[in-house]
Write a structure and sequence with these properties.
The chain has 430 residues and is of the alpha+beta class. Helix content is 38%, strand content 29%. The protein has two domains: 48-155, Immunoglobulins (Immunoglobulin-like, Sandwich); 224-426, von Willebrand factor, type A domain (Rossmann fold). Strands 1, 3, 5, 7, 9, 10 and 11 form a seven-stranded mixed beta sheet that branches. Strand 9 and strand 10 (140-146) form a beta hairpin.
């Protein structure tokens, strides 16, 4: 049972009755009358057990953008339904206007729309639906709460998309130069041109030379359809926050920009995400559907408080491709973790692939190292310098294995990783 605001108003109206006949009996009689009115009003309301709910299809929306969900209310009771429906969602779903007045005749259905603006990435589920069915007077109501499953998926926002046009312009320049610069095995034939001084005689096409009666050389362009494998670390290291952003989300942003750029370059992009087990895999997806598949696979991923099993993740890479590929490990260069778990695996990976580690750096460490105005700040600076020295030592060890480390703050990591990819393209290393 639930009472509306009309009930205390009805009780207070008894003041006039008490003033007309001041006595305790008058007061108690009025209170009893109010209780009877409320009880009768409640009995005349629609039975909530006869009201059914159904939810429309689940929706997807980029984090920070608005979405809507539809709840259908069907009055299967014997009385006219007048009341309020509360469509409750988790706070992270960012629901607004979740309380809906309803007026549904017997046997009819109404659609209620709730606006959502998720504030966290991932699947944001609905909590429950609460119905208050009021009687004709609107004084008292019968109430019932029922679970009505529903979910809205908040996709990664892809903030780094703004860097894509400038990198695509650089990519077009690289593709334009590569056709006249690159020759030899492992490339694709492009065209024929006249021989000039300095050309490798091994590039001469002797049949075309005989037809033209002048030296002609073959030109080549880099092979397309190269493989880029993104390995997303979802272990405990990804749970740390840098500039109020989880490391995992920053890594996702960098992965999306690189995937968009590589697919435009004609390379095949695959994703392996996990920690002690593979939690998401995207492989063999057409270029036109790649970004959609990636954001859908990334959306439900959450950091887990366990160490990453890099041996298992490396096996996931082997399942994706047997060909030589650019393997990008999106993780954090934590000296102790890298030395104990990642280094043994990298030796095997670098024998078959070109490996790059994309690490989210914390700019506050550099700020601490540069500030020495007080005794406390001096100690903080010493700790920051020691941390940076340990990281530099690990980066040097990784370099000896042939692994490149791209270490940058969250907003700078996506363009830095994209620039490194373009550098590899321009040098013919990919």
């Amino acid at each position: 049972m639930a009472l509306s605001r009309r009930f205390p108003v009805l009780v207070l109206a008894g003041v006039f009755a008490v003033l007309a006949a001041p006595s305790a009996a008058t007061a108690w009689a009025w209170v009893g009358l109010c209780v009877v009115v409320a009880g009768v009003d409640m009995l005349l309301s629609a039975d909530p057990r006869g009201v059914s709910f159904a939810r429309g299809p689940s929706s997807q929306v980029r984090l920070g953008e608005a979405a809507s969900t539809t709840l259908y209310v069907t009055n299967g009771s014997r009385r006219h339904l007048r009341g309020v429906v509360r469509d409750a969602w988790l706070p992270s779903a960012g629901s607004s206007g979740e309380r809906h007045p309803v007026d549904v005749p017997v046997g009819e259905r109404r659609a209620l729309t709730t606006r959502l603006r998720p504030v966290r990435r991932g699947d944001r589920p609905a909590d429950h639906v609460t119905l208050r069915a009021f009687g004709p007077l609107g004084v008292a109501a019968r109430q019932r709460s029922v679970p009505v499953p529903g979910v809205v998926r908040a996709l990664p926002p892809f903030h780094s998309r703004k860097h894509l046009p400038s990198r695509l312009a650089v990519l077009r320049q690289i593709d334009g130069r590569s056709a006249v610069r690159i020759r030899g095995a492992g490339t694709e034939f492009d065209s024929l041109r006249d021989y000039v001084d300095g050309d490798d005689v091994r590039s001469i096409d002797w049949r075309a030379t005989a037809r033209r009666r002048a030296p002609v050389v073959r030109t080549w362009q880099p092979e397309r359809d190269r493989r880029v494998v993104l390995v997303l670390d979802t272990s405990r290291l990804s749970a740390g926050r840098v500039l109020d952003m989880p490391r995992l989300d920053a890594s996702m942003d960098a992965a999306l920009l690189l995937a968009a750029l590589a697919s435009r370059a004609g390379d095949r992009v695959d994703l392996v995400a996990g920690d002690r087990r593979v939690r998401a895999r995207v492989s063999g997806v057409d270029r036109t559907r790649l970004l959609a598949e990636l954001v859908t696979a990334m959306a439900p991923l959450e950091p887990t408080l366990v160490e990453a099993d890099w041996t298992r993740l490396a096996a996931g890479v082997a399942q994706v491709t047997r060909r030589r590929a650019l393997v990008v490990l999106l993780t954090t260069v934590e000296p102790v973790v890298v030395e104990e778990t990642l280094l043994p695996t990298l030796a095997a990976l670098t024998r078959h692939h070109r490996v790059v580690i994309a690490s989210v750096a914390d700019p506050t460490v550099a700020a601490m190292a540069a500030t020495r105005l007080s005794t406390r700040e001096v100690y903080d600076a010493a700790a920051a310098e020691r941390s940076q020295a340990s990281k530099d030592r690990v980066v040097e060890a990784l370099g000896r294995l042939g692994v490149t480390v791209v270490d940058a703050p969250p907003e700078q990591l996506p363009p830095a990783l994209a620039d490194h990819y373009l550098m590899l393209k321009s040098r013919g290393l990919l």
